[in-house]
Amino acid sequence: MTQTATSAPSVLRVEDLQLAYGDNPILKGVSLDLHRGEVISLLGPSGSGKTTLLRAVAGLEQPHAGRITIAGQQVFDGQQRLEVPAEGRNLGLVFQSYALWPHKTVFDNVAYGLKLRKVPDAEVKDKVSDALKNLGLAHLSQRFPHQLSGGQQQRVAIARALVYNPPVILLDEPLSNLDAKLREEARAWLRELIIRLQLSALVVTHDQGEAMAMSDRILLLNGGKIEQQGSPTEMYTQPASLFAAGFMGTNNTFKGRIETRRDDDICIRLGEHRLWGRHCGQVDAQTGGEATGVVRVERVLLADGPGDNRIPMELVTSMYLGDRWEYVLDGGNTMVRAHGREPLPAGPRWVEIPPQQLWVFA
Prior knowledge:
By secondary structure, the protein is an alpha+beta fold. It has helices spanning 50-58, 106-116, 121-134, 150-162, 180-197, 208-214, 232-237, 242-247; strands at 10-21, 24-35, 39-43, 65-70, 73-77, 82-83, 92-94, 169-172, 201-205, 217-222, 225-230, 251-262, 265-270, 273-279, 290-296, 301-303, 310-320, 325-330, 335-340, 347-352, 359-361. The strands form 4 sheets. Strands 7-8-9-3-10-11 form a 6-stranded mixed β-sheet, sandwiched between helices. A hairpin with a 2-residue loop joins strand 10 and strand 11. Helix 3 (121-134) packs across helix 4 (150-162). The longest helix is centred in the middle third of the chain and has 18 residues, at 180-197. It is globular and about 75 Å long.
């Protein structure tokens, strides 16, 4: 992390934000604190409210209740009917489309916001030059957007958002227009830039890998509410609900009934077979009740024969993924995937699920 949430002041506070389109509620009481030098990713499925939340902070959507405070200045209060327009919020914005002026050079695109603010020309030159240097664009200052690659256009958009040193930068799917290889490279240099410049950023993404790589904290939205929030490690290893477990990572799921419970250790019955796991989530697990077991694909093991927490399955195929092989196994009513270092022939196998790696949600 760049700084811990407890040691750094808050630069953005959202309190009980509510927003609806007609009778359709989109945000249902969302609260968050973004601290100086921290990056928060808003993650969630389409329609969860993440982009609407970002746009509400930016002043591009009008909530009907709640409060938004930026760098100590209240910019929205539903009860007091206070709403500062987008141009008065002093935020850096990076849109999914980059929104560069096609007829302006890189220098002029980055300088645009400063000139709107009537910054003296000498100061504009210095600030733009510094911003371009920080993003490795100094040698491209006189080119036009159509003369740049997608990654270079993205850097120009980020330079334009950073040039006047806003307290918070908002990024809406900043890497989505890049191909897979460029995205991996871009998230690495973007994270390095965030740390080096101690940026405070709120990022919308649908890509969990992107969120985990760039963020100090992830807010997982579901149906207009925060389902869970925490560090990338916490979100991946300690899911608070079946939705959170299913959304993060690549998973196998098992549907069954709870046969035995010993404190947080739960045995679920899957037809003729049983698996032990540990209870997760807020809902109490009752013996005889339905349950869903979730295990990350990389935690599944292939074993030599029968044993504890093992079930027989048929290996259907091995798929080469470059850095590993993925096995597809068929258990009749359940399909399971696992990873390994070499291809394996089709045929009967024993699949082992470590009990501490199987999360059971009632």
